[in-house]
Amino acid sequence: MTRLSLAAHDLHIGTGEKLVVMAGMNVLESRDLAMRICEQLKAVCERLDLPYIFKASFDKANRSSITSYRGPGLDEGLRILADVKAELGVPVITDYHTAEQAQLVADVAEIIQVPAFLVRQTDLVVAGAEAVMKTGGWLHVKKAQFLAPWDCKNIVSKIGEVTGPDNPTILCERGASFGYNNLVVDMLSIPAMKALGVPVTIDATHAVQLPGADPRTAGGSTGGRREGVPIIAKSAVAAGADGVFLEFHPDPDKALCDGPSCLPLDGAEALLADLKAIHSIVNA
Predict the structure, then answer these.
(1) Structural domains in the chain (count)
(2) 73 domain-assigned
(3) Residue 220: its pLDDT value, please?
(4) What local confidence, expressed as pLDDT, does residue 2 receive?
(5) Phi then psi for 96, rounded to 5 degrees?
(6) Of 18, 26, 143, 234, which residue is the catalytic one?
(7) Residue 265: inside a domain, yes or no?
(8) Helix ranges, the chain (H)
(9) 258 is catalytic
(10) pTM for this structure?
(11) Which keywords does UniProt give here (predicted)?
């Protein structure tokens, strides 16, 4: 299976490598909060000897309501992410939503992300592939809720046609639509996607979402079952996931986006220690 490297950060993902932690906040709320969350998670990962990447979105374009909080936007969001990188010395991952944004985002973020609902947009995927080829970064691709894991071969192939043999793709499992207002995760999807020759991560946070089913807003936002995040994360690592994608907040119930799926920041170390132990057993 492919092993990818970020030379500037001595960071690797794939066969024989440590479990990669992509963790942070759902959407940027403020510069100070981003710094606080990143600083704490970086310290946890340093204690556990796990490679760390800070994640946060500058815009959540897919919202249940037009009044839902979306974030600071492209310009301010990238400024905050650049500050986090400069002050704390960590690589960052964030998503982009249009082909025009791809290079702007890749100039700041070492890993740029294709949102799940947009993975079949060829222009968007190609623009991301071209952008990371110029910067030496990675392209993190969320598997859509409506796609079978093996159908991701077409996405990997599209990217490979742009990049050649040095395909920078990481596929991410984030659940599949199961009836109405629900998602499930088939752990067999992890080895199925790894069979495509790319590293695979698990987005355990978004996998516990209940789309359009937040009882606090009578369906005006997405609900979630945060108690399920550790279960899905542990199961996916046991199934062979190369990395985990997680969201934390000092007070999840006050998070401005997807609070019901977010974990408390003070619980990060215990969970990541468990995930490291499982990964070590699986890869012994």
Answers:
(1) 1
(2) yes
(3) 53
(4) 80
(5) -125, 160
(6) 26
(7) yes
(8) 31-48, 74-88, 101-106, 122-135, 153-163, 189-194, 229-238, 268-282
(9) yes
(10) 0.94
(11) Cytoplasm, Transferase
